[in-house]
Amino acid sequence: MNILDLDHSLTAQEPIVQRLADGRATRLDLLELGPQLRLWSTERNYQRFTQRLQQRPKRSTQRPEVFFVGSGDYHHLTPALLSNLPEPITLIHFDNHPDWVRFAPRRHCGSWINRALKMPNIKRIVTLGPCSDDLQNPQLKGGNLGALRRGDLQLFPWQHAPTKVWGRIGDGAGHEQRENHLHWRNLADQDWPSFLDNLIQSLPTEAIWITVDKDVLASEDAATNWDQGGMRLTHLLQAIRALATSKRVLGIDICGEFAKAPHHNLLKRWEAKSDQPAPERWSESDLLRNSITNAALLELFEELFP
């Protein structure tokens, strides 16, 4: 278990403290890099992160490598975790946001899916759970509808109204186009076990990687820097169990902690204030939900991958 300490958000949580103390988890000190990597990163700082990542203890078993990464502002670091995959995979992506916006030239937490789509060993990305307004007028916001059209990306919102588009996108596993709207196959309306069974049968690879931003969860189960989705923790745990018992999991990364962001960069400060809800909405008791949710995830991982 790897604790990537970028923002102090993990190391005070009791389930993490226990595992660091008894050796079940290892902390990689990345606090110096944290502010430079948060929200977006220059290529130079991203490469500094990849070099530090290589200094983590190497695995001695065939168990999946598990990473806890901190705030969802660091989700664009996931491609670094995927850089040395030994075989083709499907990336299973739980998130309240599609993270598919085309930004240039920096690596950005809202655009990293586009980087991942270009990696040779990633054969498909399946995004599960968005409820955010990123799916409103996605073409005006730079959403990668081309990947959706090709089927390289499949997207299943938890709950979202039809999305207006221009031109022909076509039907996909998670949507149907009717005239100029994409009508989504909302997960909240599905029988969850049956959906998971059908999803697993449709995956193009035997190996998978699971990446989770806890903002996919309802506010009853997580408190993050971003707006919360509608999926409940029980759904997420059930999905991970079904995937892990049917497919070979090469790795898992979890982000979506809450951490205050004292941005020194004026652009980052402006972006955080523009895009993220006010951090004052969470009380100390609210933040305990993250520890409880992480405890449930850790216990599941330890059961599935002894």
Automatic annotation (TrEMBL):
InterPro entries per UniProt: Ureohydrolase_dom_sf
SUPFAM superfamilies hit by this protein: Arginase/deacetylase
Gene3D superfamilies reported in the protein's UniProt record: Ureohydrolase domain
Name of the protein in its database record: Arginase
